[in-house]
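Box 4.2: Ligand-aware structure prediction
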Amino acid sequence: MGAIRLEGLEKWFGDVQVIKGIDLDIADDEFIVFVGPSGCGKSTLLRMIGGLEEISRGRLVIDGRDVTADPPSKRGLSMVFQSYALYPHMSVRENMGFSLKTGGAPKAEIAEKVGDAARILKLEDYLDRRPKVLSGGQRQRVAIGRSIVRDPTAFLFDEPLSNLDAALRVEMRYEIAKLHQALGRTMIYVTHDQVEAMTLADRIVVLEYGTIAQVGTPRELYEEPANLFVAQFIGSPA
Ligand code: ADP
Ligand code: MG
């Protein structure tokens, strides 16, 4: 579960094409990172996968099922954003359980799933607190917790750490790597930070204005960049 295939994906905003035919096979449990400069289409592509942005052309297939026209709720994916938008009047526990509650899950099941996520994210001591008393890193963990409780087949992250200071970014990067190990789930992670990409990714997809400049392991990209754009972006000596 969690294999995602992108077939000739295109996105047009009016007569401007921002995603120009992307083909990619993402394996089950793979940690894929989309990198590229600001405006190259990373968020748009991620939102197309998540269903928040309509696919103009092409096909999206998840575990063999064509979900191109499906709404976000039917794709089994969960998105974590840079602005985590927690509900300020709810406790951490309520924030994490909210989507399950609105989905009609029984109380005992919500408690169990929130408890499990809190353990993984080291939030057990904070469950009864409000978001405003938490640190930035803890708030981001709560946002990730909201995704975990929904048990998605894949997680989609859009620059989840870019609001955090440098030290916290390093710590959270490590946390996200551990989360991937613990959950064994497909993760698609967008960043413009090369170091984040190199340390987290099984494979990196370098985007250059709506097309794929190169796909490969961090090592492949570093040692054999396909062109100057990739070399400059990855910071290798080519
Ligand atoms: P990135 O996340 O890599 O910075 P985006 O995916 O946000 O890039 O944007 C890619 C391009 O698409 C940019 O030129 C941006 O201005 C344009 N774009 C994004 N969303 C819209 C929209 N809703 N309407 C028109 N243009 C958009
Ligand atoms: Mg973006």
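In the box above, the bound molecule is adenosine-5'-diphosphate. The CA atoms of residues 35 and 193 lie 7 Å apart.
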